[in-house]
Amino acid sequence: MLLASLAGCSFKDAFAFGWPHGGITPQAHRMYDMWIGSTIAALAVGVLVWGLIFWCIIRYRKRGEQLPVQTRYNLPIELVYSIVPFFIIAVLFYYTAITESYVNKEHKNPDATVDIVAFKWNWQFQYPDSKDNKGEPVATTGSSDYIPVLVVPTHKTIRFNETSQDVIHSFWVPELLFKRDVFPKPTTNSFEVTVEKEGAYVGRCAELCGTYHSQMNFELRAVSWTDYQKFLQDKQKGMSTPAALSDIGQAPYATTTHPFNTDRTSRKAS
């Protein structure tokens, strides 16, 4: 059994206790540390309880027909199993509150802001700090044949403001190890992250929102601060998102996911 269990995962995966690897933000790293600490604490309690169970099985096993001494009250033991669990819960609550506060912390002046607008069944990403020649925020809007690419800078504080035009959706990038529901107006959800690694990361809607929920994808493209500013300048000039991405040396279209064929009409096999 031990050999079979150890063959199932690498040494690194075994001691992640089921937590996914690949977090690209400090918030993800902090949640990882919280998970590891909580799991080790749970294992410690489990080992103690298992040890006591087996000790009782062996120490107080039946040795004859004589009834052992019956103990009705034991104040010291009752105090121990009342106080110790409370202490464990208090410690876990403290570290959970600290981690949640860190993950939910928002700065007064973030380096970049993106407004996320969800709708059936796609996404629009607006950059309110950059205006086009009409005074409107530059934006990228997805369609049935275009996966929207959300461009963000690395090593900068990014605030996401989320709203929905219809039902509840959920903004989820697996590498962020974080997701947050997107509620219909006037409710606005917001959160901040700092992406540490450049790259392309798939994004999903993580809330069942209707017929084409599974096809409501996007891509998070993390680039350098210089390339990010150049991208916004190109958008302000009226360039499309694919053209602006090409101008900064990035793939013009999403590379982690592709549009799905939404044609539901029957066809004869050729």
Automatic annotation (TrEMBL):
Residues 109-234 form the Cytochrome oxidase subunit II copper A binding domain. It comes from the Bacteria. Keywords: Copper, Electron transport, Membrane, Metal-binding, Respiratory chain, Translocase, Transmembrane, Transmembrane helix, Transport. It comes from Actinocatenispora rupis. This is cytochrome-c oxidase. Subunits I and II form the functional core of the enzyme complex. Electrons originating in cytochrome c are transferred via heme a and Cu(A) to the binuclear center formed by heme a3 and Cu(B). One of its GO terms (molecular function) is copper ion binding. GO terms for biological process: ATP synthesis coupled electron transport. InterPro entries: CcO_II, CcO_II-like_C, Copper_CuA, Cupredoxin, Cyt_c_oxidase_su2, Cyt_c_oxidase_su2_TM_sf. One of its GO terms (cellular component) is membrane.
